[in-house]
């Protein structure tokens, strides 16, 4: 049973999550030749104060206007 874990930022739109999980599940089912019922997808949403990139927290890498660097 393949388990696919996706770590990323919070996504508020549940419909987007539904579509994403379906698309990932369908792709994995095709790749492995397994039923979609055998595919597990875990979405782990992380806030910017819990993610570091290049030795800095993501919240510290943001520009003052709110845009990412």
Order of helices and strands: EHEEEH
| Percentage of residues in DSSP E strands | 15-25%
Task: Characterize the main sheet.
Answer: 2 strands, parallel
CATH superfamily: Macrophage Migration Inhibitory Factor
Report the CATH architecture.
2-Layer Sandwich
Share of helix, binned? 25-40%
Total beta strands:
4
Supply the number of structural domains: 1
Question: What is the count of helical runs?
Answer: 2
CATH topology: Macrophage Migration Inhibitory Factor
Give the strand line-up of the largest sheet.
Answer: 1-2
Low-confidence stretches: none
**Backbone structural class:** alpha+beta
- Please report the distance between the alpha carbons of the first and last residues: 38 Å
Tertiary shape: elongated
How would you summarize the topology of this molecule?
Layout: E1 3-8, H1 14-32, E2 40-45, E3 52-53, E4 56-57, H2 58-61
Parallel strand pairs: 1-2
Antiparallel strand pairs: 3-4
Characteristics:
about 70 residues, 4 strands, 2 helices, Macrophage Migration Inhibitory Factor, alpha+beta, elongated, two-stranded parallel ribbon, two-stranded antiparallel ribbon
Report on this model:
There is one protein chain. The chain is an alpha+beta fold. It has one domain (3-61): Macrophage Migration Inhibitory Factor (2-Layer Sandwich), CATH 3.30.429.10. Helices cover 33% and strands 23% of the residues. The chain contains 2 helices and 4 strands. It has helices at residues 14-32, 58-61, and strands spanning 3-8, 40-45, 52-53, 56-57. The strands form 2 sheets. A two-stranded parallel ribbon has the order 1-2. Strand 3 and strand 4 (56-57) form a beta hairpin. The longest helix is centred in the middle third of the chain and has 19 residues, at 14-32. It is elongated and about 45 Å long. The termini are far apart. The relative contact order is 0.21. The mean pLDDT is 93.
């Amino acid at each position: 049973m393949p388990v696919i874990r996706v770590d990323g930022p919070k996504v508020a739109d549940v419909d987007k999550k539904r579509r994403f999980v379906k698309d990932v599940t369908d792709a994995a089912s095709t790749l492995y030749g397994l039923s979609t019922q055998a595919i597990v997808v875990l979405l782990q949403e992380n806030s910017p104060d819990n993610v570091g990139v290049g030795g800095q927290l993501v919240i510290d890498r943001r520009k003052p206007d709110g845009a990412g660097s």
